Structures are given as C-alpha cells and as structure tokens.
Amino acid sequence: MSKYEYPRLPRHEITAVLAESQIAAVSEADLLHPDPDFICNLYTHIFLDMDSQQEDQGQMEFGALEQLENPDYHAHSVQVMNLYNKIRQLIAAVNCPKGFTPKDLIKPEPDRTELFLSALLNFHLHRNTKLDLLKPIGDDLDILEDRRLAAEARMAQLNAEIAECEELRERELPLVQEVNSKVKELHQTVSGLNKHQMTLKTSMNQVREKAKELDVQISNAEFALVQSVQENANLRSKIVQSPDKLQRALEEKKSVLIETKNAERTAMQSYQDKTTTFEAYDKVFFFFFFFY
C-alpha cells in the first residue's frame, strides 16, 4: 500500500504478509487462539523487522535490571515491559481506534490481537513502500557523501599544497624583492634611455632640416656656378684676341657709318628737292585751275 491506513486485515492476509515479509510463520489457528508467549515473540519479530528499536535492546534491559535487587527474577518482566511500551507508542502514533494495554500481552484476545496486528502490518507495508521510494534518494545521498568525502580529501590535499606554496613563497620572498628592485632600476634605466632617444631623434630631425637647407643652397650655388660658367664662356667668346683685327673692324664700321650718313644726307637733299618741285607744281596747278 502506498498510502498508510489500518483497515482490519483478515487472518489469512495477516499470515500471508508475515510470511512474505519473512517475519514469522503463523497459521490462522495461532491467531484464533493467541498464546501470550507466542504473541510476545510475534510482536518482537515485527519490531525487529521494522528495526524500530533505535538502541540495543539487551543494553537497555541490562541498564533497567541494574536498578533491581534481584535482576535475574525480573529479566522476563523487563523485556515484556519494554516490548509493551514500544507497541503502545507505535499503536498510539498510527491513531489506532483502540489503545494497547498490558492485558493484550498477558492475556491477548483474538479480535484485539488481529486489530493491533493489522495496524502494525499496515504501517510495516506503508513504511517499506516509502523506504523503497526513498532508496534511490538514499543511494544518491550515499554517492553524494562519497563525493563529499572525496572533495574534503581533495581540499585537504590542496590546502597542504597551498601551505607548501606559501612556505616556498616566504622562502623566495627575499629573492623576489631583489628581482623587483632590479626590475625597478631597469625600468628607470629604460625610461632614461627613452628620453635620450627622444633627444637624439629631435637632434637628428634638426640635422636633417639643416642638411635639406644645405642641399638647397648647394643646388642654388651649382646653378649659379653653371650660369657663371656660361656667362664666362659668352664673355670669352666676345673678347677680341687681336687688337689689329679690332682696329680694322672699327675702321670698317666707321667707314660704313660715314657712308650711311652721306647716303642719308643725299636722300634728305633729294627729298627736299622733290618737295620744292612738288610745291612749285602745286602752285602752278592751283593758278591754272583758278584762272581757267
């Protein structure tokens, strides 16, 4: 049964459940005529199967017997009382309509015995069903517990490794500080070299600018030199190598100039003569035209 309930089981079902659960081999006749020792033994087997006794039963009974003067005479009574308390508490916990009394152990009645057995066996079946449902969870819990233990072991190992690393770090701390100091010095050196490099780059740029200016000046000087060479060549070509030739050339040019001037005077004289003649003709023509 998946849901707990305590219907009154028939005697044949009670015997069947006891047999299937391997609690006890009981016949219907045993339930019709219940014997006190048989009933106590049956209840004990049911509780042992359910494992409801959380403490060692023998240890509990021994502790109770120590309080008595003659424990040997009361051993059975203590066992019966412990069993009675267990049955009474469980019957009350499952809300059985009838309460369990000492008489149900000392002088059991068939009807009440069947009712209490029905309640206990129904609870037993219900409990087993729930345990079966919880078994995968229990298995998972076992797996998780194993993982937890493995994780704790791993954590312990890692903590040991961390402690070892911390110890090693403490031992190497002076060396690390020395290296850091050298690195700091190197950084400062690199910074100084970078500044020096920037200064050199600036100087190089200035030198390049001056070189460009000098290149321009050299180009201009070369161009001026070429022009000077050309002008010098022209002047050299104009220089007269022989003074006699120059004198003859001057005399020839002077003679040509005189001839030119004479021709100019002759031309001017001829022009004036022609102008005078033209004016005379013009006057004659005017006079002739006026009178005729």
UniProtKB/TrEMBL annotation:
GO BP field: cell division
Keywords: Cell cycle, Cell division, Centromere, Chromosome, Coiled coil, Mitosis
Principal location: nucleus
Xref: Pfam families: Nuf2 (PF03800)
UniProt xrefs under Gene3D superfamilies: Ncd80 complex, Nuf2 subunit (1.10.418.60)
Compartments where located: Chromosome, Centromere
Stretches of the chain forming a coiled coil according to its record: 141-168, 204-266
Database matches in InterPro entries: Kinetochore_Nuf2_N (IPR005549), Nuf2_N_sf (IPR038275)
A Gene Ontology cellular-component term: Ndc80 complex
Start and end residues of each Kinetochore protein Nuf2 N-terminal domain: 3-137
Transmembrane segments: none
Family: Belongs to the NUF2 family.
Protein name per its UniProtKB record: Kinetochore protein Nuf2 N-terminal domain-containing protein
Organism this protein belongs to: Buddleja alternifolia
